[in-house]
Amino acid sequence: MGTLIAERSVDVDAPVDRCYAIAADLERAPDWQKSLQSVDVLERDGEGRPMIVETVSDASVKTVKSRLRFSYDAPTAIHVEQQRGELKSLKGGWSFVDLGEGRTRATYALEVDPGRMLGMLLRGPVVDKVRQVLVGDAAEALKVRAEAG
How would residue 112 be classed by pLDDT, with cut points 50, 70 and 90? Predict the structure, then answer.
């Protein structure tokens, strides 16, 4: 299996600043992203935001540990790239578009190369399940969290 590309957009009945703030609060992300089991902040940027984090995620077929680097373009984007981990590579992040009238289009996209060993587990319908777990569930969960107030 080669690179797995997944993207999911949702329209959220909440302002862009709220959506961005929820996604940028990495330490609380396991509270609303069910595939994300833990986040350990290793380094912060000059504004105190998590920059380097270690995560443990349930990728449906296997629990995956990664060290990720985050960068921020408030309030329109959060970028992530794996520094090291069990995947060969991972990059992507969130983007937010203000739709006006307090509505936001939130998009979560990832490009993942699982590598040879994990790639052997990703066959057939399992690939679609992993895509849903990686991006679909996170996008929907952000929508629910942001609209809850």
Answer: confident
**Domain boundaries, position 138:** 4-147
Alpha-carbon span 65 to 56, nearest angstrom: 5
Total domains in the fold of the chain:
1
CA–CA separation, 72 and 53 (whole Å): 14
Going by C-beta distance under 8 Å and a sequence separation of 6 or more, which residues neighbour residue 38? 30, 55, 56
User: Can you give the CATH number for the domain in which 85 is found?
Assistant: 3.30.530.20
Tell me: cis bond preceding 75? Omega within 30 of 0 counts: yes
User: Average per-residue pLDDT in the chain?
Assistant: 88
Cα-trace Rg, the chain = 15
Burial of 24 (0-12, 13-18, 19+ CB in 10 A): middle
DSSP secondary-structure letter at 3?
A: -
